[in-house]
Specification:
12 helices, eight-stranded parallel barrel, binds 1,3-dihydroxyacetonephosphate, TIM Barrel, globular, alpha/beta
Length: 248
């Protein structure tokens, strides 16, 4: 059985002090359950957040990383740097990184391989734009992303990857995919993973839905067969809202 996995993606919000304030408030109301929980925060908050969540079981995630250990890559952060401070997960290939920072399936794949090699669990994002969906090509597009982004990932390692299906047209727009639309795509992603790794492995891989997930729509999305959790943007910024989603 796959364990539900709810991750908050704070994007470029909050200072370190505000992150700790969130953590302190969240810890007061959070009750550990069989739901896996993590917060993906900007780099400058990860150290403080890791300490603030100590002993709670709540994971900490980076929102990006470079695929090399070190080098002349001004402004970048490497996997060993994240590992040193105990970062558990890393979001890779978020559509905002693909759109604004030139990430391609090739760089996404390098990062996935590197994270796995360092023992940081990747949350690999995929998802189509509105134009792709209107052209009826969403499966072809997302299937292509999955095949390219998993290139060279062994079956044993594939189980450690969480896939986050985030249709770009639903991110920050308030326009959530319907549970049926989200389920259809997550089931399709699982079928591509089955092609790549077989039935047993594909059944173990967690697939999250992301895009305007809110307390009001979380439980219906989560009840779909192939949706194992959520990657939550805006609604993860307030402890009470995020908690409602975690306790869907
Ligand atoms: P919103 O929940 O704000 O739509 O963001 C989704 C997202 O991009 C999470 O990574």
């Amino acid at each position: 059985m796959r364990k539900p996995f709810i991750a908050g993606n704070w994007k470029m919000y909050k200072t370190a002090a505000q992150a700790v304030e969130f953590a302190e408030e969240f810890k007061k109301i959070y009750k550990a359950s069989d739901v896996r929980v993590a917060i993906a925060a900007p780099f400058t908050q990860l150290w403080a957040l890791k300490k603030a969540f100590e002993g709670t079981g709540i994971g900490v995630a980076a929102q990006n990383m470079h695929w090399e250990d070190q080098g002349a890559f001004t402004g970048e952060i490497s996997a060993p740097m994240l590992k040193e401070i105990g970062v558990d997960y890393v979001i890779i290939g978020h559509s905002e990184r693909r759109e604004y920072f030139g990430e391609t399936d090739e760089t996404v794949n390098k990062k996935v391989l590197k994270a796995l090699a360092e023992g940081i669990l990747p949350i690999l994002c995929c998802g189509e734009s509105l134009a792709v969906r209107e052209a009826g090509k969403e499966k072809e597009f997302v299937g292509g992303q999955i095949r390219a982004d998993f290139a060279g990932v062994s079956a044993e390692d594939a189980k450690k990857v969480t896939v986050a299906y985030e249709p770009i047209w639903a991110i920050g727009t308030g326009k959530t995919a319907t549970p049926d639309q989200a389920q259809e795509m997550c089931a399709y992603i699982r079928s591509v993973l089955e092609e790549l790794y077989g039935d047993d492995i594909s059944e173990e891989i967690a697939i999250q839905y992301g895009g305007s997930v809110k307390p009001a729509n979380a439980s219906e999305l989560m009840s779909q067969d192939d949706i194992d959790g959520a990657l939550v943007g805006g609604a993860s910024l307030k402890p009470a809202d995020f908690l409602e989603i975690v306790h869907f």
